[in-house]
Specification:
The protein is 47% helix and 16% strand. It is an alpha+beta fold. It is elongated and about 80 Å long.
Length: 148
């Protein structure tokens, strides 16, 4: 395992969590958008993470040596950004331009409380990855100081 492997894994986590925060921000910004280019209300989006397995020399060595000591795990990647298929919220607003004949408007399926909880979770995960990178850097510096 390379000394920089932990930094690479954490940096992939930083990228993934940044994208997650961008999508959450997009959801919050469109919480009241009743008409998109397709004509329907905005649908909440979610990020799907997947383990990132890049083939490397250590993975082939581990495969052919029947040893699980070497790891071929290289962090996380975004596999998809999917739309939430939950139903739209119906709000009674007869004066709204997008109201139906009964006066109800289909509002986006964005729940502000859920979005804020997801944003806090993404922020904490981002901070944890930064802490991990800083710890790895500190250990590398200590190792270099031992050699003096």
């Amino acid at each position: 395992m390379s000394i920089f492997n932990s930094i690479n894994v954490s940096s992939s986590g930083l990228t993934a969590e940044r994208t997650r925060m961008d999508i959450i921000s997009k959801n919050i910004a469109n919480a009241n958008t009743t008409r998109t280019s397709s004509g329907s209300p905005y649908r909440r989006q979610m990020v799907v993470f997947q383990e990132n397995n890049k083939p490397s020399f250590s993975s082939y060595l581990s495969l052919y040596s029947n040893s699980n000591v070497l790891s071929n795990k290289d962090g996380v990647k975004i596999s998809a950004i999917v739309e939430d298929k939950s139903p739209f919220k119906k709000v009674y607003e007869p004066g709204h331009p997008d109201a139906d004949k009964d006066g109800y408007v289909n509002m986006p399926n964005v729940d502000m409380v859920k979005e804020m909880v997801d944003m806090i979770s993404a922020t904490r995960a981002y901070e944890a990855n930064i802490t991990s990178i800083n710890s790895s850097k500190a250990m590398a510096m200590k190792a270099l100081n031992i050699g003096k």
